[in-house]
Amino acid sequence: MVGQGRRRDRDQRLLHRKFHRRARTAGWASVDRLPVTFKLLHSRTVEPHSLEGDSGSIYLWVEALDEGNRPSGVPRAYRLPYSGSLAEKTDKAASEIGRRACPGRPRRRFGSGEGGLLDAAREFITPNA
Fold first, then answer.
1. Which of 23, 86, 84, 93 is nearest to 62 (CA)?
2. Which of the residues 15, 55, 57, 104 has the least number of beta carbons within 10 Å of its own beta carbon?
3. What are 30-67's pLDDT values in tens digits?
4. CA pair distance 48, 57, nearest whole angstrom
5. Nearest residue to 90 (alpha-carbon basis) of 41, 28, 37
6. Is residue 126 part of a domain?
7. In the predicted model, is pLDDT for residue 113 greater than 90?
8. How many domains does the chain contain in total?
9. Does any domain span residue 14?
10. Is residue 3 part of a domain?
């Protein structure tokens, strides 16, 4: 009887440790393989940083698509190792998402492209009549 109580206590401690270890990683990007077909919701590219020893990463938020090309409704984050070509493809796909975000609505232009942030702010706040 005494051995069973110790075993039960040990099992409870083990379960407690497993639960808390898993809870610490909840919400982190997965390093699993991407689904075969998916809809890209958002991305973030973290460039490599040689001084800090960071090799860089590309984060993708995606929804898997089924055979009928319908999204699963369950978005998931993935972390991929950085590469220049993948970063370019990701950037191109992200800009496509931005263009499709508000179809039919004209995109606002901020500033003249000459780099005058103050002028751009003034133009946005006090537009010409």
1. 93
2. 104
3. 989 999 999 999 999 999 887 777 889 999 999 999 98
4. 7
5. 41
6. no
7. no
8. 1
9. no
10. no
